[in-house]
Structure prediction request, 147 residues.
Amino acid sequence: MQLACPRCLALNRIADRGPGDEPKCEACGAALLPAEAVALTADSFDRFIQHAGLPVLVEFWADGCGPCEMMAPIFDAIAAEMKGRVRFARLDAAAHPQVPMRHHLRGVPSLMLFSDGAEIARTTGAMEAHALRRWLASQGIQQAKVQ
Prediction:
């Protein structure tokens, strides 16, 4: 599998991981699969999405958006729960408007799920944690079982 580093965007080839294996970027040493959402920009968006190695859930948000602020801690919590199954990323739609315009987004918060660089699902509006888990499950992404 090849993963784009969330910090420097270097492509890293990694072998199948075992339990507890935390792959690191060969170029900068950053964790390749962090438990928190990766902040994307217009410059990093395409490269990260194209070389994520796993499905990527992107939250489009804007500063001062009440529903975005309400959803932020929920998105972070689910990112930690789903670590290693899906990569979570955020893009500030106001700071980088060309990306949401290119994807014809009409509101924030919006979530777009990508696989192999292509959009496979989207939804708009804030969600509670159980609703976000259910939406991800409807897209074929199951939460890891607690042992």
About this structure: The radius of gyration is 15 Å.
